[in-house]
Amino acid sequence: MTLLRVNNLKVHFPVKGGFFKRVVGHVKAVDDVSFELQAGETYGLVGESGSGKSTTGKAIMGLNKITSGEVHFGGKDLASLSRSEFKPYKKDIQMIFQDPYSSLNPKKRLIDIISEPIRNFERMSPTEERRMVQEYLSKVGLPSDAIFKYPHEFSGGQRQRIGIARALTLKPKLIIADEPVSALDVSVQAQVLNFLQDLQKEFNLTYLFIGHDLGVIRHMCTRMGVMYRGRLVEEGTSDEIYENPQHIYTKRLIAAIPDIRPEYREQSVNFRRDVAKEYKESYNTYFDKDGRAFDLQPVSNTHRVALP
Ligand SMILES: Nc1ncnc2c1ncn2[C@@H]1O[C@H](COP(=O)(O)OP(=O)(O)O)[C@@H](O)[C@H]1O
Ligand SMILES: [Mg+2]
């Protein structure tokens, strides 16, 4: 079952300049992107910083004004809804952010941080609220007496769990995880990733998993889309993307992953050299005269590549 279908999404930000702060141009942060998420899957969006991943996620959440395009979810085009019509869907789609330090209000105790989103939707007595927060804290592996503590009393990994607990209280169907472990120590990254996978099973969640670290994305995702300058340049199963990349930008991303296994060293050095050569010689195969990637064309049932 398709849970989310994004069609021809564009998010263009006006750029103002000069003394009168007139609009002098647009940043095409997301420039005609289409993809689908099946219920229960983890779909990755990868690409370097500035490629438009977060803007895509926020647009789906209704946090960014959409320039054009459609966001189909639960039989509705969310992009066409007014603020009040959108409200019931806000519950279904939650976002987890990269930075567990700045995304939690330092002046609030966990009980208020975690129950804040649900207060917009339900009336609960203080006792009910407290019980609910304790339940979600225990689901994310934190002690129930943590409810009266402040965010600074927790480590980075624990704070990310607090952010996750906060998102879960609304019983969302889709979680947009925007680089959820990028700010964490490598030693706790795997822990949080495994935890996200456990939650997915327990709560039947679908993930849109945003990241720039291809190792992490491969570990988490069944399918992924590769973004470059606001465009999807390739989409496929994780194996297709990693074993058989077709677009030069995907190849460059993969060539940049260091392979430390000695038996693959020569192979990866050769791959890097070939990719650098191809990039120089065949740039025009992959980008039009304005440097814009082409539309995606199917190369198999599951694999699409931006080619002319
Ligand atoms: N609110 C905004 N106003 C203007 N430009 C923005 C805004 N948000 C993002 N951008 C620009 O859009 C582009 C994509 O940003 P973003 O989606 O954050 O990329 P990513 O998450 O892949 O790093 C960048 O050039 C960024 O500077
Ligand atoms: Mg981002």
Automatic annotation (TrEMBL):
Organism lineage string: Bacteria, Bacillati, Bacillota, Bacilli, Bacillales
CDD domains assigned: ABC_NikE_OppD_transporters
Family: Belongs to the ABC transporter superfamily.
Biological process, per Gene Ontology: peptide transport; transmembrane transport
Phosphoprotein in keyword set: no
Domain ABC transporter: 4-254
Pfam families cross-referenced by the UniProt entry: ABC_tran, oligo_HPY
Native source organism of the sequence: Priestia koreensis
GO molecular function: ATP binding; ATP hydrolysis activity
Alphabetic keyword roster: ATP-binding, Nucleotide-binding, Transport
Full protein name: Peptide ABC transporter substrate-binding protein
